[in-house]
Amino acid sequence: MPSFDVVSRTNTAEIDNTINNVSREINQRYDFKDSLSTVEYQNNEIKVLADDEMRLTAIKELILQHASRRGVDLKSLSFKDTEKAGGDNLRQIITVSEGIEVEISKNIIKGIKATKIKVQMAIQGDEIRVSGKKRDDLQKVMQLIKEMDIRIPLQYINFRD
Question: Residues with Cβ < 8 Å from 108, sequence gap 6 or more?
Answer without folding.
Answer: 6, 100, 121, 128, 145, 148, 150
